[in-house]
Amino acid sequence: MKLNIALLAGDGIGPEVINEAVKVADAIAKKFNHDITWTPALTGACAIDAVGVPYPDETHEICMKADAVLFGAIGHPKYDNDPSAPVRPEQGLLLMRKKLGLFANVRPTFTFPSLIDNSPLKRERIEGTDLVFLRELTGGIYFGEKGRRDDGETAFDNCVYTRAEVQRLAKKGFELAMTRSKKLCCVDKANVLETSRLWRETVQTMAKDYPEVEVSYEFVDAVAMRLVQWPNSYDVLITENLFGDILTDEASVISGSMGLMPSASVGEHTSLYEPIHGSYPQATGLNIANPLATILSAAMMFEDAFGLKEEAQAIRAVVNKSLEEGIVTEDLAAKGSKAYKTSEVGDWLVANL
Predict the structure, then answer these.
(1) Of 3, 17, 39, 256, which sits 20 to 30 A from 301 (CA to CA)?
(2) Helical packing angle, 220-229 and 241-252, nearest 10°
(3) 217 a catalytic residue
(4) Is 168 annotated in some ligand binding site?
(5) According to its UniProt record, in which pathway does this protein act (predicted)?
(6) Are 105 and 263 spatial neighbours (Cβ–Cβ below 8 Å)?
(7) Catalytic annotation on 35?
(8) Is the Cβ–Cβ distance between 256 and 118 less than 8 Å?
(9) Is 245 assigned to a binding site?
(10) Do 63 and 273 contact (CB within 8 A), yes or no?
């Protein structure tokens, strides 16, 4: 199969972890007789530095022509520490999501048997955890009208949703639940927010079309509590943009490291695959960042974008083997054990494929 993939390394450790994912993907392509064409493009702070905008038109054109997008991370301290900066890397991420129609963020959370004790939560709390968040990605408060009034003394951010936006996200949630344990949780704040009441009534109306799915409705604060008490009680959760942003980061630490979880953003034109971690600028160039989340994101890409399940499973299997044998970066290395460099982990994975 010929695979045309846009490669957006981004900022900070993005290029380092992307490099290892490319090495592993190329090894899989060779093993299974595929032909990958990688097309690099700029986004984030590096794009601002180069052309003045965080998501250039040329990058968008490359993404639109690609079968899938593999993305690293964006962000730089010089923008994080300047609230008045007129152009920011994160604006590129939001624009990319909007222009590519990436309305559903798929964020799995699962545990690795060999790392179960790395989690900040007790073993008995998290064993068997295997859940997926579907976060709405192009609506809500992040995209609503925002501004200042009263000479800058009052700020506002409007949260707006249409029924159609809720329906298309919920449809993916119901369909995903049908392939798993047939349990769906709608996360909202319907006791306070009108947008949440729209979410809940829309999902209730749709539920009759999926009679096999057990649907529950929980307030976001209750879910935040239960995620650290009984995360293995959840299967598929759907929620709006802001709630999803917060809850998925909370869920990400269950596995023991933010450097382990992959994600996908799917929608109207193409699909984008990325690790859940940020650009980690403090580690830039040190060759210490964990590349496994990016590599597992590539596995998601092989399976979901191209239907190549055997290839995806081969990547997951060799990642599990690396964890079991302690071929890990410093964030996962046991006390007194060797911590491998980012590139060494990638080389080991390639050698063992």
Answers:
(1) 256
(2) 10
(3) no
(4) no
(5) Amino-acid biosynthesis; L-leucine biosynthesis; L-leucine from 3-methyl-2-oxobutanoate: step 3/4
(6) yes
(7) no
(8) yes
(9) yes
(10) no
Measure the CA angle with vertex 15, ends 10 and 16; round to 5°: 145
Query: CA–CA separation, 40 vs 43, rounded Å?
Result: 10
Judge whether 331 counts as a catalytic residue.
no
Measured CA to CA, the distance from residue 276 to residue 43 in angstroms comes to 17
Distance CA 5, CA 12 (A): 21
Query: Quick one: residue 150, left, alpha or beta (phi over 0 = left, psi -120 to 50 = alpha)?
Result: left
CA 343, 347, 348, 353 dihedral sign is: positive
Token pair for residue 346?
């990638």
Q: What angle do CA 251, 163, 155 make, to 5 degrees?
A: 70
325: left (phi > 0), else alpha (psi -120 to 50), else beta?
alpha
Mean per-residue pLDDT pooled into runs of 10, the chain (353 residues):
97 97 98 98 95 97 97 89 82 91 95 89 93 96 95 96 98 97 98 98 98 98 96 97 95 86 92 94 95 97 97 97 95 91 98 96
CA 268 distance to own-chain centroid: 17
Which of 142, 234, 273, 340 is flagged as catalytic? Answer: 142
Q: What is the DSSP string of 97-140?
A: HHHHT--EEEEEEE--GGGGGGSSS-HHHHTT-EEEEEEE-SSG
Active site residue 31: no
Question: Pick the catalytic residue: 26, 80, 130, 249?
Answer: 249
Residue count (the chain): 353
Q: In angstroms, rounded to a whole number, what is the distance separating the alpha carbons of residues 298 and 262?
A: 8
Question: Has 221 been labeled as part of a binding site?
Answer: yes
The pLDDT of residue 1 is 94
Ramachandran region of residue 256, left (φ > 0), alpha (ψ -120 to 50) or beta?
Answer: left
Respond yes or no: is residue 11 known to be catalytic.
no
